[in-house]
Amino acid sequence: MRIKHLVVTSVIAIATSCMSGATMAADDCHDSPRAGIDWRDCNKRNLMLPGGELRGANLTNVDFSGTDLGGSDLVSAIFEKATLVRANLAGSQASGTRFSRVEAYRTDFSEINAPGAIFRSGELQRSNFHAAVLTDVDFTKADMGRSQFDKADVSGSRFALANLARADFRGAKFAKGADFDRAFFFLTRIEGVDLSTATGLNQWQIDMACGDKDTKLPQGLKPSKGWPCKFGDD
Asked: Which of 59, 123, 155, 200 could pair with 181 as two cysteines, CB 3.0-4.6 Å apart?
């Protein structure tokens, strides 16, 4: 009887373990988008998924290259280490979404509503953030060379140690101070931008940037003698 009891107990334990494992497993990569879906490590390249419901989804390390996610609900989703090369997220809702360490070359983030989002250490070269809501966003150590922030609201965001070479902030809003501590400002376009409440800026950054007579700087900093920069838009 004791042996029989041990066998039954073992079978129950194994079954319970399997059920627990099934609960923890990722969802099928072919499942339709839904809130909270777990697509970790899936290949979702070149798909049409506009207006998708992905609120709270786990999209870690997913390849979305060339995929249309425009107008989707991405609130609190996890895109860490995801590939978003030439993807479209325009007009999406992404409050508190985690984009840390994404690869997002030439990605369309225009008009995205992403207050409190995290883009730490993201590869965001030549991406488009036109008219995006990026208040209190963390861009620490992100590479945003040649990215567009025209008419974006970046109030209170953190750009510490970020690469902003040739990034374009013309028309961007800074209703409250943004942090540019040790950010790389080589030919960064700040013509007409009000940076008077910005923190972390030093004269060497301003001297590398491209401003004009309408650029407003924090107290103690002065316009570069090389302003306005003499180069064409490219």
From this structure: 200
